[in-house]
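Fold it.
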Amino acid sequence: MRRLGYERYVAQGGDIGAGVTGMLGALDPQAVLATHVNSDPLGTALIADRLGIHLEAFAASGLSGDERQRVEFLARYAAEGKGYLQLQSTRPQGIAYALTDSPVAQLVWIAEKFKEWTDPTARSLDEAAPGAASGAASGAAPGVAQAVAST
């Protein structure tokens, strides 16, 4: 950031950027005024097996009842909730074309994610539908999938 003319700065990062942003304060504490990070709290559950984390065994360790419930939820999510990630990380172009070609498929895809990933008291599916419709109308999915797959 100094090369860009900033002696002091704040930083924000999400997902992988959260890891990078989280390190900035340690790497340059005189310049970094604050950091803000955000990420999917279930992200670890999705890649637990790749990290060598065995959630079922962890849940059986000396955790409180609330902690055990949370880890058991993460273990279930790791077992049942990562199909979309597998598909999007290995065959993004195929799902992109399918969702672009079929507005019904795209609506079902979005509705399922909306149901699984949001607090039902916070927003309704009716509020999400216009965004889904604009995504379907744009036809941008195949290009985005190709760009992501090639990075």
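Residues 43-80 form one domain.
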